[in-house]
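Dissemination and training. As part of the outreach component of the grant, students in the summer workshop were shown how a complex can be specified as a set of sequence lines and then modelled as a single object. The example used during the hands-on session is reproduced here so that future cohorts can follow it. Participants entered these lines:
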Amino acid sequence: MAISPEEVLHVASLARLTLAPEEVGLFTRQLGEILAYVNKLAEVDTAGVTPMTHVLPEPEAFREDRVSDSLPREEALTNAPAREEGAFVVPRVI
Amino acid sequence: MSDELCRLSLTDLSRRLQAGEVSPMEVTEAFLSRIERLDGSLRAYLTVDARGAREQARAAQARLARGEGGPLTGIPLALKDILATRGLRTTCASQMLAAFVPPYDATVVARLREAGAVFLGKVNLDEFAMGSSTETSAFGPTHNPWQRDCTPGGSSGGSAAAVAADLCTASLGSDTGGSIRQPASHCGVVGLKPTYGRVSRFGLIAYASSLDQIGPLTKEVRDAALLLSAIAGHDPKDSTSLRAPVPDYPAALGREIAGLTVGVPREYLGEGVDPEVQEAVRRALATLEGLGARLAEVSLPHTEYAVAAYYLIATAEASSNLARYDGVKYGLRVAGKNLLETYLRTRTQGFGPEVRRRIMLGTYALSAGYYEAYYRKASQVRALIRRDFDAAFATCDVLAGPVAPTPAFRLGEKLADPLTMYLSDIFTIPVNLAGLPAISVPCGFSRAGLPIGLQILGPPLGDEVVLQTAYAFEQATDFHRHKPPL
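and obtained this result:
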């Protein structure tokens, strides 16, 4: 199953990426080759096999809900590209 | 004299520091001067923190003087630049994080800090750990100390090169599909990927969360055991970190391997493996047999599907993990006229081609209409790969084979052909998919003088038997004593 340039552009937009015109061809070819290769998975009989999304027998997902130290606001904002009055600033959305 | 200090193993340096024969300041200065002299042509370091290292060395000195030091007090380390270091730039070798200064330490960094280690700086990697050669770094490749026109492997190539060239005593790397073991093999050092969950991932910048694991790259096996003891254990900040008690890893090293069964997967020594690698690995197996281990041929029939499963699972997880780089809270922002345009510009300029390729592949594998055929199918094959290993470990204590199908390849050789690059991880990837511990230990050289590594794999939480076997092999050979021509 090859991938078309239109699909590549669609996937790029889903991933919030833009591609330069000369990149569309390159990515289409490279992703096409990778997908052709991964299609070999179709050879494997996986009927009835439970998908394994994690190697841990039982992830420790739960803990007590306790208040503990967290990053102070000032420190959390030190890497902000833009900030104002203790908040992150982004371009106007509405 | 000062270069001699840089060549010492962690174990030997630790002994001399504790005996007061050398001081942490002296050792740190020796490394800083060696880095200044030699790293210009290797480019293992992205950031050298001379000021911080001197401060930490001074503190270690005071601590040793009070008789309060431990085995890592005053030991100079290099950290892969994917581990968050409070107050010290952490780039992930990406333009996206070129100016990022974390306000917190990764748990492993905090633990080593507490143990009194000295951090010389941050070392190079493939951008966001996505690569097998350190060539996708936004700041340029690292060179292999054995042959400058070869890659050091990747993604922890800076770590492996720095250890091999004696530009640090040891290093921490991370391994998602072989990123500790393969560069260790290509640079002739020891590299251990612990059992998934053994070491906290808190502060490790995420690539593929169900596969990523932090581990040591060192000059000798005992050094790796010492470092693992310091960084292993449960962390409330990582829900996937295991609660199992942490054994005394160095204590496992003296145990004999006579009577152990070493499984040799037939798929690991077949077609596609360089004859020189095959020869070195077969000799290594004979050495293990000479030490009293029993060799047994085993089969891991789904090996040939591991790379395909990995490149769907890892990229799917990456597409989700890297969604956080949106130019809002930290990292690069390239402003657009609205929020969507800001996202698009930031991510397009911030990520290099390999990262964008993997994000797109993962997005595709998870997208409507393809999820079943790709992501779900890959997760089923992952279960079968784990079953292969479970069956093998029912009769074997460890498995052994090559780390990589070839010795280090030349800079630029595979960069234009992503699929060929991916296939070089065929023997390391299954270990991550199954969550197992595995080590690379030097086992020979090609005729061209490039190092070759032996991979020893253990069952889940079998980190001890992996270290024990690697140590027995190392003690019976002298490959780890060879130094690159610098």
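Chain B has a mean pLDDT of 97. Students were then asked to discuss how this feature might be tested experimentally.
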